[in-house]
Amino acid sequence: MSNRDAVVVGSGPNGLAAAITLARAGKSVTVLEANDTVGGAARSAEITEPGFVHDLGSAIHPMASASPFFGEIFPDLERHGLKWVTPPAAAGHPLDGGRAAIAWNDLDRAADGLAEDGAAYRAYYERWTEGIDRLVDLALNPLVRLPPHPIFAARFGAAAALPATTTARRTWQSKEAQALFAGHAAHAILPLTAPFTSSFGLLLGALAHSSGWGFPAGGAQSLIDAMVALLEELGGEIRTGHRVETLSDLPSATATIFTLTPGQVESIAGSHFSDRYRASLRNFAYGPGAWKVDYALDQPIPWTNPELCSAGTVHVGGTLDEIVRAEAAVGAGRHSDRPFVLVAQHSLFDKRRAPDGKHTAWAYVHVPNGSTVDQTEALERQIERFAPGFRDVIRTRTTTSTVQLEAQNANLVGGDVGGGSYAGTQLFMRPRPQRNPFTTPDDSLFIGSAGTTPGAGVHGMSGAGAATRALQTVLR
Length: 476
What we know:
This protein has two domains: 4-45 and 59-80 and 215-284 and 419-472, FAD/NAD(P)-binding domain; 84-214 and 288-408, Alpha-Beta Complex (Polyamine Oxidase, Chain A, domain 2), CATH 3.90.660. 35% of the residues lie in helices and 16% in strands. It contains 16 helices and 16 strands. The protein has a seven-stranded mixed beta sheet with strand order 7-6-12-13-14-11-15, sandwiched between helices. It has a five-stranded parallel beta sheet with strand order 9-2-1-10-16, with helices on one face. Helix 1 runs parallel beside helix 10.
């Protein structure tokens, strides 16, 4: 392999974002992928029956539409075949008795559905949707800096710092509004009594009512395929089946960007780092894991409340108090009998996902990191609670344990789909406290994975940020 300007290790969304950023700057770049297929945690396959397309990892991408990186290249990706699907409702949240709260993309419609809490719900999210560009800048800009809108930033910081339980109970009275916020906040994969969990409910709710929560038609792999086509058009190349375990496995290059977890980077390149920096990578904390089930269905999920069929994502967990108990159990290293379940129902909006008249469902629950305890029964019991007859429409199910998730993608350590815990300072300083999260003590080595700020999500900002830093320094 000839000398390149840069090598990127890992071909997930961040790896491809890094490579595309470099190639657009006229640099020669090679992407190395350990697996035989590209995509990392954004791959798709027919893992239940032929014709049923399931996402192996990430399935709904609320950050993608808001991402500055994707905002620049979406026209090019569309030219390479990407079609984006945005359901009319970002998320739904069922409650007992056929009730449900719906995060319609239209904020007024969502508020109108919350009766006595409608005005309070509208007032809470209106300030964030009206400032969505400033909010996205605060949430996705990875650099430690003085914000360009300090008053807005201060208000965001004060609201984001609260535990989700505090925000939900102070702001709304109804179980519907409280549960809707709790479902968003539970994406933090932390006890909802933890500081800063409101930041997830705030950001995801604001995105729901601005750009919506979209996904690629045909599966997450469609986004990856379009990114690969763009990279190759720009002169970049990808080598699959090339596992990097030591620096000697890398071809000669001026810059190397690892889109791996901090612990993996330390294992590969630790000898080039200071003892203090090396220790900080070793101490990077991973979060809980996921127990995932993919379904081939004869019919759509038979929700008691039919409005849930308008939502691409359904948060299944009952009331705020129930979700608090479920996430607290996981945070304490236990399994919940009534877990919080994340459900994606792509085929209601994307006919490419299943044969005519058939459907798919994608679901997972949070479990302790590395757990091998089968959670399929608990997961299905929760869905059946709000969709009686769900088990009757299942044709085939495929379960994926935390161990299998990590086997599919080594970045999912112990089944951690968040790229590392969001507890404490790791929420906003990843992988360690430093002004630029992508640099290492070796000027030629960079980290650009979800283990860096701004964290998990299909937004490409970590990979693009690492590549930008390389362009500002060793690749000037």
